[in-house]
């Protein structure tokens, strides 16, 4: 399919023969552009999530210039559009509260401006799904230009990963095994350059899955942010989007159910973040594709963890890049992929998978030598999670995959943090920690509180993992036996709201079961006495979020943004 200049969306603004068209062209010439620059070229938007407070995206101002170079060389006209930057560490209470805000912002930026196609610049956890969700809804040609991971680090001869080792070293500090001076040294050492986290956390999981979906160039998402190949890749994105505009290669032509299942297969082979579950379901629903927790559990049973990367394995993102990146990983699991899906290159996925090469079999393992015998994801159900909950067995303790213990329940992080610091806390290694009021509505925003801290008393005894359950999410850089995304959440009356300290909970991951050992009559009594918690947010975005966010198993999108619906182009008068 090849479109003619007259068919481009931007022509409504620039080719108009009335007073409005005059004003649109006039204002471009006010900026020093020539009339023909906007009248005779496709217009490319570059949605940039750069910010001074987002170290993962610190280099994206310069990368936008590389994208512009590619657009201009291919005959397009680039315009940069700043969007909310969701730096994972700085934005409070949680970037997840704002993922849908960025999605809505991206969609409306594209709708309200004379844009024919878009390059999406981002990479920190929620920016990737947020921008993609907006671009899918708007359905103009779009390509994702990933921020790229930060450089690797080593400490005392061992690889050190952002996020993963922060929690690990913190536990060592609490247990008195590292000193204050070493802790301060680590603070300045562990994140060596701009770029996203160098472990297979949420950022790299999501960018890799977007590459597997076909929305990013092959091999692009593992290129380190500070490698000279990175600005070259950014220029390639700029060049490619111009041809995608001429071909009218829109997200919905790429994002089939097969493409989403390919992305799910890559998540499993990567040992990727549990956060991806929420995001991939939300993106699929935007594309009008039915994708459920059961689809993801089934993929987890089929595709083993092959990427030997933290937190499931031992390497970091630079190692993955040298080993061949996503194309090489997809070659390993080709038997589980739908290879006829079309990608942003306008070619079938099969071509790039067949051209790939695994350079390091220690980092991208063969199918018969997986990193873990446990899957990257398991979906649990039971009377404690009727709509599902998730766990990442490959980053958990095998001995805890079948467990029975007494609940110790908390209703807020301050209550929990005070309790776990108390060395006389009534708990042992069989205790099941429960945190509620941490879901999409309750927190609000479903923060990454799901890696509940181990009580100090147990850390001193050498205990490093116990079973933890919440309606929260967990950072993709973390590990531990954490049951997450319990749905429905406690704030809307899910069964988690009915658990009391001392109740027995049974976890059986092989049987995919999560059960509260309390009889139905007693649960009914507790439900009758349950009062919904107050929702304190009276204004602004948070109020809109609380009123409209869907539950974890539905992707946590806003209910009025799911699915596909044609939205009229803005009138030009
Ligand atoms: Fe941005 Fe981890 S904090 S990717």
Protein architecture, described:
The chain is α/β, with parallel strands linked by helices and 573 residues long. The strands form three sheets. Strands 7-8-12-11-10-9-13-14 form an eight-stranded mixed beta sheet. A four-stranded parallel beta sheet has the order 2-1-3-4, sandwiched between helices. Strands 5-6 form a two-stranded antiparallel sheet. Helix 4 links the parallel strand 1 and strand 2. Helix 5 packs parallel to helix 6, helix 9 runs antiparallel to helix 12 and helix 16 crosses helix 17. The longest helix has 19 residues. The two termini are 31 Å apart. The model has no long low-confidence stretch (mean pLDDT 95). The structure holds FE2/S2 (inorganic) cluster. The site of FE2/S2 (inorganic) cluster (FES) has 9 residues, from loops.
Q: Helices, strands, pairings?
A:
Layout: H1 11-14, H2 19-30, H3 35-39, E1 43-48, H4 60-73, E2 77-82, H5 96-112, E3 117-122, H6 127-138, E4 142-146, E5 153-155, E6 158-160, H7 164-174, H8 180-189, H9 202-213, H10 229-247, H11 251-254, H12 257-270, H13 275-286, H14 293-302, H15 317-323, H16 325-332, H17 349-355, E7 378-382, E8 385-391, E9 402-410, H18 413-421, E10 432-435, H19 456-460, E11 468-470, E12 482-487, E13 504-508, E14 513-516, H20 520-529, H21 540-548
The structure holds FE2/S2 (inorganic) cluster.
């Amino acid at each position: 399919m090849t479109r003619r200049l007259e068919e481009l969306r931007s022509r409504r603004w620039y080719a108009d023969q009335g007073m409005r068209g005059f004003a649109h062209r006039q204002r471009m010439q006010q900026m020093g552009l020539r009339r023909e620059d906007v009248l005779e070229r496709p217009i490319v938007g570059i949605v940039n999530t750069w910010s001074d407070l987002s170290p993962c995206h610190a280099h994206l101002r310069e990368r936008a210039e590389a994208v512009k170079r590619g657009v201009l060389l291919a005959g397009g006209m680039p315009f940069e559009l700043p969007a909310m930057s969701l730096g994972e560490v700085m934005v409070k209470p949680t970037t997840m509260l704002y993922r849908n805000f960025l999605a809505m912002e991206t969609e409306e930026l594209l709708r309200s401006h004379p844009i024919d196609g878009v390059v999406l610049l981002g990479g920190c956890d929620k920016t990737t799904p947020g921008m993609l969700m907006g671009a899918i809804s708007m359905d103009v040609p779009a390509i994702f230009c990933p921020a790229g991971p930060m450089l690797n680090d080593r400490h005392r001869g061992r690889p050190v990963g952002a996020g993963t080792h922060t929690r690990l070293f913190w536990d060592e500090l609490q247990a008195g095994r590292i000193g204050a001076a070493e802790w301060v040294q680590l603070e300045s050492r562990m994140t060596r350059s701009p770029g996203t986290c160098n472990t297979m956390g949420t950022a790299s999981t999501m960018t890799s899955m977007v590459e597997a979906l076909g929305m990013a160039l092959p091999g692009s998402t593992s290129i380190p942010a500070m490698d000279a190949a990175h600005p070259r890749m950014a220029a390639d994105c700029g060049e490619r989007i111009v041809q995608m505009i001429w071909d009218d290669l829109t997200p919905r032509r790429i994002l089939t159910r097969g493409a989403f299942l390919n992305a799910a297969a890559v998540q499993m082979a990567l040992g990727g973040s549990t956060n991806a579950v929420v995001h991939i379901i939300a993106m699929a629903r935007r594309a009008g594709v039915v994708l459920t927790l059961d689809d993801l559990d089934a993929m987890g049973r089929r595709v083993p963890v092959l990427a030997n990367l933290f937190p499931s394995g031992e390497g970091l993102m630079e190692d993955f890049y040298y080993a061949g990146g996503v194309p090489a990983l997809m070659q390993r699991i080709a038997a589980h992929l739908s290879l006829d899906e079309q990608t942003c290159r306008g070619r079938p996925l099969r071509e790039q998978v067949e051209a790939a090469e695994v350079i390091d079999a220690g980092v991208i393992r063969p199918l018969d030598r997986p990193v873990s015998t446990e899957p990257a994801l398991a979906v649990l159900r039971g009377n404690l999670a009727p709509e599902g909950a998730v766990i990442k067995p490959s980053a958990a303790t095998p001995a805890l995959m079948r467990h029975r213990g007494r609940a110790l329940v908390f209703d807020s992080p301050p209550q929990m943090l005070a309790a776990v610091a108390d060395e006389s806390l009534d708990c042992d290694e069989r205790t099941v920690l429960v945190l509620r009021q941490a879901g999409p509505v309750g927190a609000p925003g479903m923060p990454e509180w799901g890696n509940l801290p181990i009580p100090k008393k147990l850390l001193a005894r050498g205990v490093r993992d116990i079973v933890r359950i919440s309606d929260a999410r967990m950072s993709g850089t973390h590990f531990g036996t954490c049951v997450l995304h319990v749905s429905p959440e406690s704030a809307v009356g899910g069964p988690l709201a009915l658990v009391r300290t001392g109740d027995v909970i049974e976890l059986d991951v092989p049987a995919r079961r999560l059960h509260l050992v309390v009889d139905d009559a007693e649960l009914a009594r507790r439900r009758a006495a349950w009062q919904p918690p107050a929702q304190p947010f009276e204004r602004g975005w948070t109020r809109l979020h609380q009123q409209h966010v869907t539950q974890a198993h539905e992707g946590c999108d806003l209910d009025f943004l799911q699915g596909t619906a044609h939205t009229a182009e803005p009138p030009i008068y």
